[in-house]
From TrEMBL:
This is DUF1772-domain-containing protein. Pfam families: Anthrone_oxy. It comes from the Eukaryota. Belongs to the anthrone oxygenase family. Coiled coil: none annotated. The lineage of its organism: Eukaryota, Fungi, Dikarya, Ascomycota, Pezizomycotina. InterPro entries: Anthrone_oxy. It is found in: Membrane. Keywords: Membrane, Transmembrane, Transmembrane helix. GO terms for cellular component: membrane. It is a multi-pass membrane protein. The chain crosses the membrane at residues 20-44, 65-83, 95-116.
Amino acid sequence: MNSIPISATRPTTGIRVAQVVGLTASAYLAGSLGSFSFMSVPALMDAPAPLLAKQWKKIFDIGKVTLPPLALVSGAIFGYLAYREPTDSSSFNLYTAAAILVPSIVPYTIFAMSAVNNKLQDKAASLANASLTDAEVEAGAEGETAHQLLEKWATLNLGRSLLPLIGTLAAGWAIADKFEVLGLGAVLKTGADRMG
């Protein structure tokens, strides 16, 4: 009888913990970044410029402290999982992709978003003493308004959120590729024997 085992080996508890923590961290990171563009920015766009700039600065300050370490930890976990896989395995390649994609939010932020981040920080500083409800504070001002800068930032941030999202999907596929039926000893029959 020809059969293909559904699983050859069961991952160790350490590997399973690494898989869960890596996936959870990268998925949380992707969701956090995506939520800035999909939920926070639309709410901020309704605010007067001084309030918008102050609230964006708060989001930025919290994000720059919490999200890069999360990306680096998740990337390191996926790197470890890639190291643990055989080099001829598709899981190795998927984990390696995740290990590169997830922490790449850091260089993406530095190289693709620094200009708009700096302009928004300057805008927040220049509007710090304005009344938070002054809707006309930027009327007739030269250069980009806080609202225009925030629109650019939201688009760039959406692109940034795709990096950990794709990394999460790659790592999830690598994990699912090793899926096993726990303790059932299930086999897939092939050829003429498959009908019993």
